Amino acid sequence: NSQAPGKLFQFKLVLLGESAVGKSSLVLRFVKDQFDDYRESTIGAAFLTQTIALDENTTVKFEIWDTAGQERYKSLAPMYYRNANCAVVVYDITQPSSLEKAKSWVNELKRQADPNIVIALAGNKSDLSERRVIDTETAQNYAADAGLLFFETSAKKSTNVNELFTSIARKMPLDQ
Ligand code: GDP
Asked: One GO cellular component from the entry (predicted)?
Protein backbone atom coordinates (compact mmCIF):
# COMPACT_ATOMS: atom_id res chain seq x y z
CA ASN A 1 0.00 0.00 0.00
CA SER A 2 1.66 3.20 -1.19
CA GLN A 3 -0.57 5.54 0.76
CA ALA A 4 0.99 7.23 3.75
CA PRO A 5 -0.53 5.64 6.82
CA GLY A 6 0.02 8.71 8.94
CA LYS A 7 1.39 7.60 12.25
CA LEU A 8 1.82 3.89 12.74
CA PHE A 9 1.55 2.51 16.25
CA GLN A 10 2.45 -1.11 16.97
CA PHE A 11 1.19 -3.09 19.90
CA LYS A 12 1.60 -6.65 21.08
CA LEU A 13 -1.72 -8.34 21.77
CA VAL A 14 -2.14 -11.71 23.47
CA LEU A 15 -5.22 -13.95 23.47
CA LEU A 16 -5.90 -16.01 26.56
CA GLY A 17 -8.71 -18.31 27.62
CA GLU A 18 -9.82 -21.88 28.04
CA SER A 19 -9.29 -24.27 25.17
CA ALA A 20 -11.99 -24.25 22.45
CA VAL A 21 -13.63 -20.95 23.43
CA GLY A 22 -12.75 -19.60 19.98
CA LYS A 23 -9.50 -17.66 20.39
CA SER A 24 -8.03 -18.82 17.07
CA SER A 25 -11.39 -18.32 15.37
CA LEU A 26 -11.59 -14.70 16.56
CA VAL A 27 -8.10 -14.07 15.20
CA LEU A 28 -8.91 -15.80 11.90
CA ARG A 29 -12.05 -13.66 11.55
CA PHE A 30 -10.23 -10.46 12.40
CA VAL A 31 -7.14 -11.09 10.25
CA LYS A 32 -8.57 -12.99 7.27
CA ASP A 33 -12.35 -12.55 7.61
CA GLN A 34 -12.74 -16.34 7.54
CA PHE A 35 -14.33 -18.96 9.75
CA ASP A 36 -13.70 -22.70 9.88
CA ASP A 37 -15.99 -25.11 11.77
CA TYR A 38 -13.30 -27.78 11.95
CA ARG A 39 -10.16 -25.90 12.87
CA GLU A 40 -7.32 -27.81 14.46
CA SER A 41 -6.23 -26.68 17.90
CA THR A 42 -3.37 -24.28 18.23
CA ILE A 43 -0.17 -25.94 19.40
CA GLY A 44 1.89 -23.69 21.66
CA ALA A 45 1.16 -20.29 20.12
CA ALA A 46 0.52 -18.73 16.71
CA PHE A 47 1.61 -15.31 15.48
CA LEU A 48 -0.30 -13.05 13.09
CA THR A 49 -0.51 -9.33 12.41
CA GLN A 50 -3.34 -7.04 11.42
CA THR A 51 -3.61 -3.29 11.00
CA ILE A 52 -6.57 -1.02 11.69
CA ALA A 53 -6.86 2.49 10.26
CA LEU A 54 -8.42 4.45 13.11
CA ASP A 55 -8.53 7.63 11.06
CA GLU A 56 -6.58 9.14 8.16
CA ASN A 57 -3.65 9.97 10.45
CA THR A 58 -3.56 6.96 12.72
CA THR A 59 -2.89 3.31 11.95
CA VAL A 60 -2.63 0.68 14.64
CA LYS A 61 -0.80 -2.55 13.93
CA PHE A 62 -1.45 -5.47 16.24
CA GLU A 63 1.11 -8.24 16.60
CA ILE A 64 -1.19 -11.00 17.77
CA TRP A 65 -0.08 -13.94 19.87
CA ASP A 66 -2.76 -16.62 19.94
CA THR A 67 -1.90 -18.95 22.81
CA ALA A 68 -3.01 -22.55 23.17
CA GLY A 69 -5.56 -22.96 25.96
CA GLN A 70 -4.57 -26.45 27.00
CA GLU A 71 -3.35 -26.86 30.53
CA ARG A 72 -0.07 -28.39 29.33
CA TYR A 73 0.89 -25.12 27.63
CA LYS A 74 -0.06 -22.92 30.56
CA SER A 75 3.55 -22.43 31.63
CA LEU A 76 4.27 -20.75 28.26
CA ALA A 77 1.67 -18.02 28.69
CA PRO A 78 3.85 -15.61 30.72
CA MET A 79 6.29 -15.44 27.78
CA TYR A 80 3.48 -13.99 25.69
CA TYR A 81 1.73 -11.70 28.15
CA ARG A 82 4.81 -10.36 29.90
CA ASN A 83 5.58 -7.80 27.20
CA ALA A 84 2.03 -7.53 25.83
CA ASN A 85 0.42 -4.10 25.54
CA CYS A 86 -3.08 -5.52 25.36
CA ALA A 87 -4.92 -8.77 25.97
CA VAL A 88 -8.17 -10.35 24.86
CA VAL A 89 -9.42 -12.83 27.44
CA VAL A 90 -12.01 -15.07 25.83
CA TYR A 91 -14.77 -17.23 27.29
CA ASP A 92 -17.59 -19.17 25.65
CA ILE A 93 -21.13 -18.06 26.60
CA THR A 94 -22.20 -21.74 26.56
CA GLN A 95 -19.47 -22.93 29.01
CA PRO A 96 -19.68 -21.74 32.64
CA SER A 97 -16.17 -23.00 33.44
CA SER A 98 -14.77 -20.77 30.73
CA LEU A 99 -15.84 -17.56 32.49
CA GLU A 100 -14.18 -18.73 35.70
CA LYS A 101 -11.06 -19.52 33.69
CA ALA A 102 -11.22 -16.07 32.07
CA LYS A 103 -11.40 -14.44 35.51
CA SER A 104 -8.33 -16.33 36.63
CA TRP A 105 -6.45 -15.12 33.52
CA VAL A 106 -7.50 -11.54 34.29
CA ASN A 107 -6.20 -11.92 37.85
CA GLU A 108 -2.94 -13.35 36.59
CA LEU A 109 -2.54 -10.48 34.11
CA LYS A 110 -3.18 -7.94 36.84
CA ARG A 111 -0.53 -9.54 39.04
CA GLN A 112 2.11 -10.32 36.42
CA ALA A 113 1.64 -8.30 33.23
CA ASP A 114 2.50 -4.67 32.49
CA PRO A 115 0.43 -2.48 34.84
CA ASN A 116 -0.74 -0.43 31.83
CA ILE A 117 -1.98 -3.42 29.86
CA VAL A 118 -5.39 -2.89 28.21
CA ILE A 119 -7.59 -5.93 28.79
CA ALA A 120 -10.77 -6.84 26.92
CA LEU A 121 -13.15 -9.64 27.91
CA ALA A 122 -14.86 -11.38 24.98
CA GLY A 123 -17.88 -13.66 25.49
CA ASN A 124 -17.65 -15.64 22.26
CA LYS A 125 -20.15 -17.88 20.41
CA SER A 126 -22.96 -15.37 20.85
CA ASP A 127 -24.63 -17.02 17.84
CA LEU A 128 -25.39 -20.07 20.05
CA SER A 129 -28.09 -18.21 21.97
CA GLU A 130 -30.15 -21.38 22.57
CA ARG A 131 -27.21 -22.87 24.49
CA ARG A 132 -26.32 -19.72 26.43
CA VAL A 133 -25.60 -20.28 30.14
CA ILE A 134 -23.74 -17.03 30.96
CA ASP A 135 -25.99 -14.01 30.76
CA THR A 136 -24.71 -10.77 29.34
CA GLU A 137 -25.32 -8.74 32.48
CA THR A 138 -23.30 -11.04 34.76
CA ALA A 139 -20.26 -10.80 32.52
CA GLN A 140 -20.76 -7.10 31.85
CA ASN A 141 -20.92 -6.29 35.57
CA TYR A 142 -17.79 -8.32 36.23
CA ALA A 143 -15.98 -6.55 33.35
CA ALA A 144 -17.04 -3.12 34.60
CA ASP A 145 -15.85 -3.90 38.15
CA ALA A 146 -12.53 -5.22 36.84
CA GLY A 147 -12.04 -2.29 34.45
CA LEU A 148 -12.15 -4.37 31.28
CA LEU A 149 -13.57 -3.62 27.85
CA PHE A 150 -16.38 -6.06 27.18
CA PHE A 151 -17.98 -7.51 24.05
CA GLU A 152 -20.07 -10.54 23.24
CA THR A 153 -18.71 -11.82 19.94
CA SER A 154 -19.34 -14.42 17.32
CA ALA A 155 -16.34 -15.40 15.24
CA LYS A 156 -18.76 -17.54 13.23
CA LYS A 157 -21.21 -14.77 12.34
CA SER A 158 -18.62 -11.99 12.50
CA THR A 159 -20.49 -10.18 15.25
CA ASN A 160 -18.56 -7.54 17.21
CA VAL A 161 -15.16 -8.89 16.15
CA ASN A 162 -13.95 -5.72 14.44
CA GLU A 163 -15.61 -3.67 17.19
CA LEU A 164 -13.64 -5.60 19.81
CA PHE A 165 -10.25 -4.97 18.21
CA THR A 166 -11.09 -1.39 17.21
CA SER A 167 -12.12 -0.49 20.73
CA ILE A 168 -8.85 -1.90 22.04
CA ALA A 169 -6.97 0.18 19.45
CA ARG A 170 -8.79 3.30 20.62
CA LYS A 171 -7.82 2.63 24.22
CA MET A 172 -4.12 2.33 23.44
CA PRO A 173 -1.77 5.30 24.07
CA LEU A 174 -1.73 7.03 20.67
CA ASP A 175 -0.16 10.35 21.55
CA GLN A 176 3.60 9.73 21.62
P1 GDP B 1 -9.47 -21.98 20.71
O2 GDP B 1 -8.99 -23.31 21.21
O3 GDP B 1 -9.91 -21.10 21.85
O4 GDP B 1 -8.51 -21.28 19.80
O5 GDP B 1 -10.83 -22.24 19.89
P6 GDP B 1 -11.03 -22.45 18.30
O7 GDP B 1 -10.93 -21.15 17.60
O8 GDP B 1 -10.15 -23.56 17.85
O9 GDP B 1 -12.57 -22.88 18.26
C10 GDP B 1 -13.03 -24.05 18.94
C11 GDP B 1 -14.30 -24.54 18.27
O12 GDP B 1 -15.35 -23.58 18.44
C13 GDP B 1 -14.15 -24.74 16.75
O14 GDP B 1 -14.91 -25.87 16.36
C15 GDP B 1 -14.77 -23.47 16.17
O16 GDP B 1 -15.28 -23.68 14.88
C17 GDP B 1 -15.87 -23.16 17.19
N18 GDP B 1 -16.16 -21.72 17.28
C19 GDP B 1 -15.26 -20.71 17.44
N20 GDP B 1 -15.88 -19.52 17.48
C21 GDP B 1 -17.21 -19.78 17.35
C22 GDP B 1 -18.38 -18.94 17.30
O23 GDP B 1 -18.34 -17.72 17.40
N24 GDP B 1 -19.58 -19.60 17.17
C25 GDP B 1 -19.68 -20.95 17.06
N26 GDP B 1 -20.90 -21.47 16.93
N27 GDP B 1 -18.60 -21.76 17.09
C28 GDP B 1 -17.38 -21.18 17.22
From this structure: plasma membrane
**What number is the ipTM of this complex?**
0.99
| Burial bucket for residue 44 (CB in 10 Å: 0-12, 13-18, 19+) | exposed
Instruction: Output the CA 103–ligand 1 centroid distance in Å.
Output: 19
pTM of the entire predicted model: 0.94
Measured from the CB, is residue 29 less than 6 Å from ligand 1? no
pLDDT tens, position by position, for the chain (176 residues)? 555 558 999 999 999 999 999 999 999 999 999 998 877 777 666 889 999 999 999 999 999 999 876 667 778 889 889 999 999 999 999 999 999 999 999 999 999 999 999 999 999 999 999 999 999 999 999 999 999 999 999 999 999 999 999 999 999 999 86
Q: 158 CA to middle of ligand 1, Å?
A: 12
Q: How far apart, in whole angstroms, are the C-alpha atoms of residue 24 and residue 67?
A: 8
